[in-house]
Specification:
Layout lengths: L1 E6 L4 E6 L11 E7 L5 E7 L5 E3 L6 E6 L5 E5 L3 H4 L2 H15 L5 E5 L10 H5 L4 E5 L3 H11 L5 E4 L3 E2 L5 E6 L9 H7 L5 E6 L2 E2 H7 L4 E4 L5 H6 L7 E5 L5 H13 L2 E6 L2 E6 L3
Parallel strand pairs: 8-9, 8-15, 9-10, 11-14, 15-16
Antiparallel strand pairs: 1-2, 2-5, 3-4, 3-6, 6-7, 12-13, 16-18, 17-18
């Protein structure tokens, strides 16, 4: 019997096999965790009966494959957002699935994608529930983003820095790119005693981007300015997702008031918030 546990909240995947009577001649087994977007193997490990295998990199969404010692695939478990997603991932999925079931088309704007291997939006995009424009400001991450989605007919990618007003900015980069930002203090708080580079960059305003196409959902992960971008929106998409855990109490209060005024209900889970227009 194969036991599989995927915990989105601790980013842990655990696998064990108890009864191996039918494959006892073809041991050990090999576990592989394969990224659902790129197909790359993030984790591989050989194991024997009654032994747990644990991997704490589950923020990268993966399918699970188990092979016997001959290389034969004996078990495959596909990642499913309805089983393993957090509340924000599930809510976005059901929103987009519901629209498709009604014959409605969806189009999303995703700002701060990193390389596109992780995010609340990757599962519905993979399954064709929506088209989307994927934007990241970091050069290295954008190269990987473009490569990871170049064969996906549902998306376009852009290498842009997005701000409230489209002004020129100082862009700070370091580490693996997850904290690249226009907010110097934020990246310094994450990358203590690590090299940080600064470059002068042009930016584009979020309202310019929103006016270029009809977007019904917006996903933000822009390291420190999620709230500012939302508060300056001239168009109100049906769904807004943003990283709320690193925002100040003052900013979160402003956002709550803005959502209430504009007819949204919100759910916060796992450090992120999804806001949906009532009856949308």
């Amino acid at each position: 019997m194969i036991n599989f546990k995927y915990d989105r909240y601790t980013n842990a995947t655990s696998v064990s096999v108890n009864d191996m009577t039918q494959i006892s001649d073809n041991l050990p087994l090999t576990l592989k965790l394969k990224n659902i977007i790129t197909g790359e193997i993030h984790f591989e490990h050989q194991f024997w009966p009654n032994v747990w295998v644990n991997w704490t990199g589950a923020e990268l969404i993966t399918d699970m494959l188990i092979y016997d010692s001959t290389g034969k695939l004996i078990f495959e478990k596909k990642w499913d957002v309805t089983e393993y997603g957090d509340l924000v991932e599930k809510d976005l999925w059901y929103y987009l699935k519901g629209r498709k079931n009604k014959g409605l088309k969806s189009n999303g704007l995703v700002i701060g994608t990193h390389d596109g291997r992780n995010g609340h939006w990757i599962y519905p995009i993979k399954h064709g529930l929506s088209t989307a424009t994927l934007i990241d400001g970091s050069d290295n991450q954008y190269v990987e983003l473009k490569q990871n989605y170049h064969n996906n007919p549902f998306v376009e990618t852009k290498n842009l820095i997005v701000t409230t007003d489209g002004s020129d900015v100082e862009w700070y980069q370091g580490g693996e790119g997850y904290t690249d930002t226009v907010v110097k203090e934020l990246i310094e708080s994450w990358l203590v005693d690590k090299p940080i580079t600064k470059t002068s960059r042009n930016s584009v305003s979020i309202n310019q981007l929103m006016s270029e196409k009809e977007y019904d959902w917006l996903h933000l992960d822009v390291e420190g300015i999620d709230g500012d971008l939302i508060l300056c929106l001239e168009q109100r998409p049906n769904v807004i997702i943003y990283e709320s855990m690193n925002l100040s109490e003052e900013m979160n209060q402003k956002l709550n008031e803005w959502f209430n005024t504009n007819g949204y209900v919100t759910i916060t889970d796992n450090g992120n918030t999804i806001a949906k227009k009532i009856n949308k």
